[in-house]
Fold this sequence. Notes:
38% of the residues lie in helices and 23% in strands. It is built from nine helices and 15 strands. It has two domains: 3-202 and 281-303, Metallo-dependent phosphatases (Purple Acid Phosphatase, chain A, domain 2, 4-Layer Sandwich), CATH 3.60.21.10; 214-273. By secondary structure, it is of the alpha/beta class. Residues 1-9 have low confidence and may be disordered. The strands form four sheets. A six-stranded mixed β-sheet has the order 6-7-9-10-12-11, covered by helices on one side. It has a three-stranded parallel β-sheet with strand order 1-2-3. A three-stranded antiparallel β-sheet has the order 5-4-8, with no helix packed on it. The two termini are 19 Å apart.
Amino acid sequence: MYVKQLRDAGPVLLLDAGNALFESTFSSDGKAKAKAELILRVMGEMKTAAMAVGARDLALGPEFLLQTSRKVGVPVLSANLTRDSKPIFPASTVVTAFGVKVGLVGVSPAIQGLDRYPGLRGEPPVRAALAEAAKLRGKVDVLIALAAVSWADALQLSKEGAGVFDFVIQSGEQRGAGVMQRNDRNFVLSAGERGRAVSKLDLDLSGSGPLVDLAEIERDRARRRNLEMQIESVKQRVAGERDPAILKSYQQTLASFQDQLQQLRQNDPEARAKGARTARLAIQFLDESVASDPALKAEVDKYGPPPAH
Length: 309
C-alpha cells in the first residue's frame, strides 16, 4: 500500500526488523512462496538497506532466503543463525546515509534446530549481537539492532547493550507500533506487525551525548501543564472547603500533585535536549486513509486479504 508514498518521500534509510515474508514458520505452499518473492522484490525496489532474519522468514529454508534476497538486492542479516556451527548470513553491515555512518546488526531468535533443515541453529541472540556490535562501535555514528526476537530478548539486549546500541528495533510478536521505550542510554521500539504501519525515525545528530526522545519531552510538557491545572483546581477547593475530613483529603491530593510536578521539573528532559542528539518517532498506520499503489495492489490481491489477528 505504502510503496508510492515511500518512493515519493525523498531520501530515507529503509530498514526491516524481520518476520516479513510468511504468515507462519510453516507457510510452504506455492502461493506463500510467490507472495514472499513479491515482498522481497518490492523491498528491493524500495532500496531496503537491510532486513533481519526472523523465524517467519525461514519457512522455505535459509537457501531460499539467501538466493531470493540476493537476486532482488535486499541485504539480510543475522549475527546468530548458523548451520553446522558456521554463519549462514552476514552478521552486520554499515551504510552511509546523508553523511552518517549507520551500523546495522541482524539478530534472529534462538532456534534450536528445525527438523526439515538439519544443522540450522540460532545461537543465543544477545551474546551474538553484542559480540558483533563490539566490532562496529567506534566506527559508526549510529548503531542499530534489527532484532527479530521476543520482546523480552529485545529488552535484555537493550539493557546489556547500553552505551553500545542506540536503537533496538524488535519484531516477532503481535505487538503494534508505539512509543519508544528509553532504557538507560538507548531505545527499544516495536516494528509493528505484518505491514500494518510504517514507523519514521527522524534523527538529529548535530549534538553530542546520549540521544533524547523529543516525543518524551512533549509528553512531559503536557503532563506538567495538566498537573499545574490540577494543582490550581485543588487549591481553589482547599480555599473554599470547611469540612475538616474533606479538607484533609484535598490537602493530601495537592501534596501528591506538587510532588509529581517537582519530580518532572527535576528530571526536565528539555534541559537534557539542549545540545544533545535527538530522535523523534512518527507512525503512519496503513489504513484506508493511505492510498494504495494500484499496480502493486493488483499483485497483492492475488493472494487474498491480509491475515487477521
